[in-house]
């Protein structure tokens, strides 16, 4: 045990008057204790190095001139003492073995807490303050989610509607006591616990404000005893404004205008329940749409812009011209019907991504949806649906229409565009169990990993410089994640396996793949050919994945899809000359389906059969030879995603309709246009409220279905829309004839 003495410090400082010392280095001296009366004499010191000792605490003294402090490689248990250094700019605290499990719960807590305690800091552990502030937002976000889940478990059943005013204080005290006793937070320092107690108080108070009645939507003829969500909104005083659907990205960036986070764990859900068909609707929705000359449905809907930034507002002449394929299908006379599919009934239409809980918010876009994998039965799904849009990710029970969990990001600029599921094997109580992990990403360019059991956001993958539109996991290596961004890169990550006790995890950036001059809208891995495909703004690229250690940075393949526009003007570049591949989904047996804006068809093709037999060191242009063409709408609206399960493909359009295709049996190299097996029209829906604003927000001439998905057995069909709706349909026993 070695205690600091005045003589020892004067020797290290090289001066006899400690009050005049400006810089002192006492690293690796075996110190175990610091004396307050000695350190308090350092009134002029601006640099103090006490690294590589055995210190367990720091005296409660003020050093107003101190600017740089190095206390790394000690055994400190907290850093609360830095509040006494008002001019501290640089702090080194890494390698302190005494930090408890709470402070080590996430990757950047020490840096974040240091910034919270001492705002003057410019750098912690050589990390700039700008980066630390971003870490701080992430850390607070994680704390809030943990506490919201605990609040839900403790109080939601007791206070399903609201907390009476005379009981709020008691609930706050009870909730705070529960936080203090929770093993996850029990090792927090006094300073950290102060922050948690403030969070707890805000959660309780905002829960009390947010339960003010119900707002449920229904269609004519719906059953009154159908399960409904009883969650409702508070502060529904915002004007319901209608924005033009052509302002595609205006909704992407301006989706959430609130400057402060919502503390309520489960905000309002506005549900459309449509147990039966609307009055007067046909028993079978199979009417063939009006077609244009090329055999596709015509639409005048405008292209939706992805961003308001100057680089995305480039004119058509500045974008890459579509490479022409010699393959030109003939649609006018050759048209076949796909096998029939059972009909579907609309059951729940839910508005759960609203900004500020506004029930008439029809601007927030629900960009992506996917069914949760069944951890015990590979290839199957549960009844849980995940959706993303705005700052929010929702987990919805398709049986009841209730939003079971919700994650809301604290970054007001975040708008989630994409998501992907994976199933990992984790260690739980000394045995291996499977658990699902959800990856989400969007406007900020950060990929966030969530654990669905509590909807905890436990890691942030930061590697992109612009928004992320595409995510996909490797089907055979579940920790490998690919993310595609506007920055022209596809990053391959190893997300690691989280420790579910404290949600610690180690992840790595493995490779950075280039998408030359464009961005990846959708990603898909074709297992049969071991190829990563990227559907991009003006092309479709592919990379070989048979050797993940040697994945090339540049694409191995440029896929040239069939040219279905037969009326192009020679010598002039038209909108149709630009190949925006906005739809891509992997099918069974090596097949994929792709969709291009303006084309009016969905192309089904076998990746392996189209790849060159001989390898090449340079990029290969592949003229895609389709297996089948599926008839679709000829629309200018972009970013409409495809969905598929065994034998069935689904996609929405810009009129609120859903198209389903039975692709269990397809012709070999057919040049015909296959008509949809089933078309589901947008149902008539109303709100069971007298609010004209609420009812007015449910209807629009052009309802864009951004994304659609199916359960593994096709019993459930779900989609997300441009007017802030999550729509759930269930299959009936009747077969569409």
TrEMBL record:
GO biological process: chromatin organization; DNA replication; establishment of protein localization to chromatin
Keyword annotations: Centromere, Chromatin regulator, Chromosome, DNA replication, Kinetochore, Leucine-rich repeat, Repeat, Telomere, WD repeat
WD repeats: 461-495
Database matches in Pfam families: LRR_4, WD_LRWD1
Subcellular location: Chromosome, Centromere, Kinetochore; Chromosome, Telomere; Cytoplasm, Cytoskeleton, Microtubule organizing center, Centrosome
Region annotation (Disordered) ranges: 206-260, 281-324
Keyword Protease: no
Comp. bias regions, Polar residues: 211-244, 284-300
UniProt main location, coarse: nucleus
Molecular function, one GO term: chromatin binding
Family stated for the protein in its record: Belongs to the LRWD1 family.
Full protein name: Leucine-rich repeat and WD repeat-containing protein 1
Lineage: Eukaryota, Metazoa, Spiralia, Lophotrochozoa, Mollusca
């Amino acid at each position: 045990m070695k205690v600091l003495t005045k003589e020892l410090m004067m020797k290290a400082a090289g001066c006899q008057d400690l009050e005049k010392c400006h810089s002192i280095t006492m690293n690796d001296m075996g110190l175990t204790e610091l004396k307050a009366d000695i350190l308090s004499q350092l009134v002029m010191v601006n640099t103090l190095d006490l690294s590589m000792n055995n210190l367990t605490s720091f005296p409660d003294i003020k050093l107003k001139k101190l600017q740089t402090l190095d206390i790394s490689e000690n055994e400190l248990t907290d850093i609360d003492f830095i509040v006494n250094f008002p001019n501290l700019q640089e702090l080194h605290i890494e390698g302190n073995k005494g930090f408890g499990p709470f402070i080590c719960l996430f990757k950047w807590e020490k840096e974040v807490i240091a910034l919270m305690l001492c705002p003057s800091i410019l750098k912690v552990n050589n990390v700039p303050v700008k980066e630390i502030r971003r870490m701080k937002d992430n850390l607070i976000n994680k704390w809030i989610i943990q506490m919201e889940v605990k609040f839900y478990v403790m109080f939601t059943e007791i206070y399903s509607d609201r907390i009476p005013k005379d009981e709020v204080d008691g609930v706050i005290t009870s909730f705070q006591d529960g936080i203090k006793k929770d093993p996850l937070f029990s090792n927090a320092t006094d300073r950290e616990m102060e922050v948690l107690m403030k969070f707890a108080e805000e959660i309780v108070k905002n829960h009390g404000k947010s339960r003010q009645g119900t707002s449920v939507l229904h269609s004519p003829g719906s059953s009154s005893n159908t399960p409904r969500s009883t969650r409702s909104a508070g502060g529904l005083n915002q004007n319901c404004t209608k924005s033009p659907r052509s302002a595609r990205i205006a909704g992407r960036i301006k989706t959430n205008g609130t400057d402060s986070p919502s503390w309520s764990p489960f905000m309002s859900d506005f549900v459309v329940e449509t147990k039966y068909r609307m009055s007067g609707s046909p028993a079978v929705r199979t009417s063939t749409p009006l077609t244009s000359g090329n055999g596709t449905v015509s639409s005048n809907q405008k292209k939706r812009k992805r961003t308001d930034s100057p680089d995305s507002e480039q004119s058509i002449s500045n974008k890459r011209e579509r490479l022409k394929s010699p393959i030109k299908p003939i649609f006018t006379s050759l048209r076949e019907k796909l096998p029939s599919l059972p009909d579907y009934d609309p059951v729940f239409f839910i508005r759960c991504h609203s900004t500020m809980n506004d029930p008439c918010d029809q601007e927030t876009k629900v960009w992506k949806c996917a069914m949760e994998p069944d951890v015990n039965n590979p290839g199957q799904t549960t009844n849980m649906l995940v959706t993303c849009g705005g700052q929010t990710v929702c987990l919805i029970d398709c049986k009841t229409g209730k939003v079971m969990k919700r994650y809301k990001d604290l970054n007001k600029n975040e708008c989630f565009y994409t998501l992907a599921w994976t199933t990992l094997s984790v260690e739980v109580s000394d045995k291996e169990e499977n658990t699902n992990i959800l990856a989400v990403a969007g406007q900020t360019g950060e990929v966030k990993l969530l654990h669905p059991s509590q909807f905890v956001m436990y890691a942030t993958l930061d590697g992109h410089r612009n928004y992320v539109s595409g995510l996909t996991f490797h089907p055979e290596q579940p920790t490998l994640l690919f993310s595609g961004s506007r920055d022209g890169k596809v990053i391959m990550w190893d997300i690691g396996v989280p420790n579910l006790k404290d949600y610690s995890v180690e992840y790595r950036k493995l490779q950075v793949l280039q998408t030359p001059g464009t961005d990846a809208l959708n990603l898909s891995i074709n297992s049969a050919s071991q190829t990563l495909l990227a559907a991009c703004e003006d092309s479709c690229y592919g990379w070989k994945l048979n050797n993940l250690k040697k994945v090339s940075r540049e694409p191995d393949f440029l896929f040239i899809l069939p040219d279905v526009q037969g009326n192009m003007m020679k010598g002039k570049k038209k909108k149709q000359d630009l190949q925006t591949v906005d739809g891509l989904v992997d099918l069974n047996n090596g097949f994929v389906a792709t969709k291009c804006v303006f084309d009016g068809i969905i192309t089904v093709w076998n990746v392996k059969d189209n790849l060159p037999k001989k390898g090449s060191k340079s990029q290969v242009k592949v003229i895609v030879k389709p297996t089948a063409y599926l008839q679709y709408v000829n629309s200018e609206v972009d970013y409409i995603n495809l969905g598929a399960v065994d034998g069935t493909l689904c996609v929405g359009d810009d009129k609120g309709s859903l198209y389903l295709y039975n692709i269990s049996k397809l012709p070999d190299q057919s040049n015909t246009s296959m008509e949809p097996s089933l078309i589901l029209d947008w149902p008539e829906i109303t709100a069971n409220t007298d609010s004209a604003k609420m009812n007015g927000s449910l209807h629009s001439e052009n309802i864009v279905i951004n994304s659609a998905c199916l359960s593994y057995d096709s019993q459930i069909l779900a989609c997300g829309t441009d007017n802030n709706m999550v729509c759930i349909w269930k299959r009936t026993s009747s077969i569409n004839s």
